[in-house]
Every structure is written in structure tokens, then in C-alpha cells.
Amino acid sequence: xxxxxxxxxxxxxxxxxxxxxxxxxxxxxxxxxxxxxxxxxxxxxxxxxxxxxxxxxxxxxxxxxxxxxxxxxxxxxxxxxxxxxxxxxxxxxxxxxxxxxxxxxxxxxxxxxxxxxxxxxxxxxxxxxxxxxxxxxxxxxxxxxxxxxxxxxxxxxxxxxxxxxxxxxxxxxxxxxxxxxxxxxxxxxxxxxxxxxxxxxxxxxxxxxxxxxxxxxxxxxxxxxxxxxxxxxxxxxxxxxxxxxxxxxxxxxxxxxxxxxxxxxxxxxxxxxxxxxxxxxxxxxxxxxxxxxxxxxxxxxxxxxxxxxxxxxxxxxxxxxxxxxxxxxxxxxxxxxxxxxxxxxxxxxxxxxxxxxxxxxxxxxxxxxxxxxxxxxxxxxxxxxxxxxxxxxxxxxxxxxxxxxxxxxxxxxxxxxxxxxxxxxxxxxxxxxxxxxxxxxxxxxxxxxxxxxxxxxxxxxxxxxxxxxxxxxxxxxxxxxxxxxxxxxxxxxxxxxxxxxxxxxxxxxxxxxxxxxxx
Length: 519
Ligand SMILES: C[S@@+](CC[C@H](N)C(=O)[O-])C[C@H]1O[C@@H](n2cnc3c(N)ncnc32)[C@H](O)[C@@H]1O
Prior knowledge:
Blueprint: H1 6-14, H2 17-22, H3 30-41, E1 48-51, H4 58-64, E2 71-76, H5 79-88, E3 95-99, E4 111-116, H6 128-139, H7 149-159, E5 161-172, H8 181-190, E6 194-200, E7 214-220, E8 227-233, H9 239-248, E9 257-260, H10 271-274, E10 285-287, E11 292-296, H11 303-306, E12 307-308, H12 310-315, E13 323-327, E14 337-338, H13 340-348, E15 354-356, H14 364-375, E16 401-404, E17 406-407, E18 413-416, E19 421-422, E20 426-431, H15 441-448, H16 451-458, E21 462-463, E22 469-470, H17 473-478, E23 480-482, H18 489-501, H19 506-517
Parallel strand pairs: 1-2, 1-4, 2-3, 4-5, 6-8, 13-19, 14-18
Antiparallel strand pairs: 5-7, 6-7, 8-9, 10-23, 11-20, 12-15, 13-15, 16-18, 16-20, 17-22, 21-22
Helix pairs in contact: 3-4, 3-9, 6-7, 7-8, 15-18, 18-19
């Protein structure tokens, strides 16, 4: 039995990416598979093993090279890969490979070991409703309608662990810090089976081009400990850390952060258990929503149709009266200020900086363009179909500050001096304007540009692969900031003055905040 990734590499060369993506066929590196297998082998009575998302059986190959006296059952839904896998394992009687959907079969059986890299699909790409029903029926628990399939695989597998059974999964870490993950985390703590979460910040992405950071989840259905250990590893060279964790089990390793089940709160982002937090360094933190409200930008539901540059406006003879100035692409904004002349420059360079704003339009050319939209079924799209009329835009006044949604280098805030609208490429930030939390926009913006602000927000971000972070509007609303209302009057004036004079003088501004708020 070969213990490398040659079979997966050949398959990836032969089979088009479109097919592989359709079934979420990204393969586990053999070095990772071998480590996960070690966790299963820690069960001295390992006799029956389940591979719920078989692919080409990398885990079974790694396992059989270590231990012979086991029976393995594998599930796979894609006929093409299934036939190849069957050929590969034709010589061994230990295998029972089934061309069946794991989520709808085999609920009654229990296993000594379950090992898996489950499919990771975007939410719309699978039958989430029926799968959810199936899992809620068997596990008697409630789950969010947005629960991603890969976590449902995990929950089912935990349910199928025999006494002393062990389970090893490699999955995106997204659920640890997202809303739908709360109920999943609740199940993991309630069953008392969770043992290790190892977050893997590999430079190279384990899920190929899927945009996500991986974590290895190790569970055991034994009563050997009531602690969960968290670890972060930064490169594939650190896999030996996991080996040590496994051989030390059930003792707690010195490198881990460990928590009793009773200390783990499913309601919060679990990031705080495995990543050093920045907020602790400061006093007087308040939720960002105290001073500002973050709302997502305008979603049109059909950007190609609704966005315009000057040439397109000329072609369809649409006058500017029906075009709403709007920033459509993040890359069009350089630096931290977006001025009227920046807008004019984009416009004159024929960039898309307008949205069709056709409600109550009487002009024939606009009406013709709307007819064209209907001919192309734009009015039947997911978002447009629910609007009246279908071409109306979401009501979002221009926001004085924008923040970029995805970022490699941390959050990016932009002062929208041009006072134009924005698509979802940015979130809108509206400073609160009631008497209790009125804040000078320049003061708020100067604060947002500091590293301190970004570090504190980072405690609340979602992680994706390749160092990419994402903030949903509520991650920011619930994120923390320094309570600017508590800044001394003198410092407030100094910050505003520095900011207005040389808005790039971040360091001097930073020092004022640190001096007043650092613990
Ligand atoms: C991420 S790949 C992992 C393959 C292999 N175990 C590995 O780690 O290299 C997931 C595999 O699960 C299969 N799959 C997708 N949905 C499934 C389902 N509902 N039941 C069983 N297998 C499924 C896919 O065709 C794919 O081969």
C-alpha cells in the first residue's frame, strides 16, 4: 500500500477542476493524514474504522501501513473517484467501500475510529435543508439553518463513536468563530468528547483553493479527561507538536492552552482560547456600536447590470440624473481618504462609479434599459425578485467612513470625503449622533487608523486561509474600541489637531491613546 500522495496527484492531473470542485475533492497531505491516524491508533482496541468522505482513501492507506487487523468502511458519493478508489484497494479484504451519501446512511453503527476530511461547500451548493432535518432527528438538537455541512459530518461522526472510540477531523476553523458554530460548539462540549483543537495557520493552504484556515479536531468517547486543549501551529514543520500532544494524552501538554468543559463558552468566538488577545492590554473598552454603527454596503443582486461607467452610460444614453455615484471596487480606492477629485479621476478614467437609480424614471432611454434587464431575467434574480420595483436600490445614505471587508494587512478604514455610496466591497460606518455618544468624526477616524484600534478589532475577526481576515458588520459592531468619551479634553484636541494637520502622523496619535488607555 503506497503511503504518499501520488494517487491524489495523478487524479488531480486527470480530472478537471470543475468536477473536483463539484464534489469538494481537496486531498489531505499525507503528513497530516499520518498524524491524524496516530490519534486513532491511541485506541488500543481499534478494530472498526469509518472513513465518511473517502476520496482516494488517504487515511485508510496511512492506517493500513501501521495496523493490519482492522475493518474499514468508507462512504463516497462520486462514482468516478469511487471506481478509482475501489481499484486501488482491490487487493485488501479489509475494505468495505460504499457509493452512498454518508449523511443519510449508517446512523445505527458505531466505530472504534472515525477519520475524515469532509466536503467543504459553499452554503448554496448542497441540500442543506434535508440534511439538517436528518441530523436534528437523530441527534435531538437544534442547529442553525446556516450550519455548514462539514460540521454536520463531524457531529454525526461523534454520535457514531463506540465506547473508547476516537475521531480525527480536519476542517475549516470558520465554525469556531462564526454564529452558526455556536450550536456546534454546544454539541461538542455537551457530549464531553472534544479533546484537542489544533488551528493550522499553514502558509500553503491545506484546502487548495478553498478560502479557509484549517483546524484538526480530535475527539474521544472515553472518560479520561474533562479538559480541552487548544494549539496553534504555523507550518507543516510543526506537525511534531501534534504528535507530542497525542502521545501525552490524557496528560495536558505544556505547549497547550487548556480549559475545563465547564469553562468553555459556546456563545463566544473560540479564538480567544487559542490566540493571544489584544484587548486585555487596555482599560475602558466599549463595544464599537457605542460610537458607530456598521452596516453592509449596497447589494444590487446583479452588479454587471446595475453598475455603469461613462462609456456604458453613453452607449445606453442614460443621463447622470439616473446614476448614483458609488464606489464599486475596493481597488479603486487608494490611501485613507477618498476625495471629490479622486471620484472625478475614476469617472474620467471610465471606471465603474455609478449605479442605475431608475425609480420613477420617465425617460425613454432608461425605460428601454429596464426592458433589456427584464429580457435578461435580471428581475428574477434572488435579490431583485424580492424588491418593488425590482430595480430599486437599497436605501443606504453615503457613509462618512468605509471599511474594507476582506483584508490581508488588517482592517482598512477610508474617510469618504466625496460623500458617495458604496457596494458591499466596503461596509458603511455611521457615527452615532445621540447626545450620549456623539463623537467627533475626525477623532473617531484618527482612532480607527491606529494599530491599537486594529489590534483590538482583530480579537473579533473571522479567519480565512492565506492570512485573509473577514469582518462581518456585526463582528465590528460587537468588537471593542477604546472609550473615546473617556479621553481627556486636552488629548481629544491634540488628536484632532494632529490628524487634521498631518493625517499620516499615526505614531504620535497612537502614543496619546496608549498613554491614556494602556494598563
Ligand atoms: C475533501 S475530500 C477528502 C477526500 C479524502 N478523504 C482526503 O482526505 O484526501 C471529500 C470527499 O468526500 C466526497 N463526498 C462529498 N459529499 C459526500 C457525502 N455526502 N457522503 C460521502 N462522501 C462525500 C467527495 O466526493 C470527496 O471525495
